[in-house]
Amino acid sequence: MQLDDADRRILRHHLAEPALPRAELALRAGVTQATLWRRLERMTEARVIAPARAVIDWKKLGYEVEVSLRFTLDKTDPRAFDEFIAAAREVPEVLGIETFLGRVDVRLNVIARDMAHYQEVYRQRILALPHISELDALMLIATIKEGEGLPL
Predict the structure, then answer these.
(1) Domain limits for position 120
(2) 41: which residues sit within 8 A by CB, 6+ positions away?
């Protein structure tokens, strides 16, 4: 999809303040509210803008530990990926599942209330996942940059 200057202005202001009322967003982007609505609709349909979803601050709900687990799977079984991912989807503490090309096959983003809870999740649910060949854990210390877009 080709973006023109008005689209880029809309996206720039929308990224900076996603909760901005549409009337104010239109004013800042220099377009009418009708134009803003049409362009946002077009960009959403084209998947330039993802549909709105709730973003939960898990730390405010008591989940203080976040760990990125990187897996290399035993690929001698052709069903390894599908079975691993299906089982990982069933673990409530798994917030994200990503697949990769390279040495690491899958990454799971896992949350826990504290280290004791993480140890329980790790031992009872993570280590029970099928087809694990290698596993590496990275504990999140701080998020420095997240969700910031490219310059428009």
Answers:
(1) 58-139
(2) none
| Residues in contact with 144: Cβ distance below 8 Å, sequence separation at least 6, in sequence order | none
Could you tell me how many helices (H) and strands (E) the chain has, helices first?
5, 4
The confidence score (pLDDT) of residue 54 equals 86
39 and 64 share one domain: no
Across the beta sheet with 65-73, the strand order is: 94-99, 106-112, 65-73, 132-139
CATH number at residue 27: 1.10.10
Sequence length of the chain is 152
Which CATH number does the domain housing residue 110 bear? 3.30.70.920
Q: Which residues in the chain land under pLDDT 50?
A: none
Q: Rounded distance, CA 36 to CA 103, Å?
A: 45
- The answer as to whether 100 is a domain residue is yes
What pLDDT, on the 0 to 100 scale, is given for residue 150? 67
d(CA 87, CA 13): 40
Return the biggest CA–CA distance within the chain: 58
- Kindly tell me the sign of the dihedral angle through the C-alpha atoms of 54, 57, 60, 66: positive
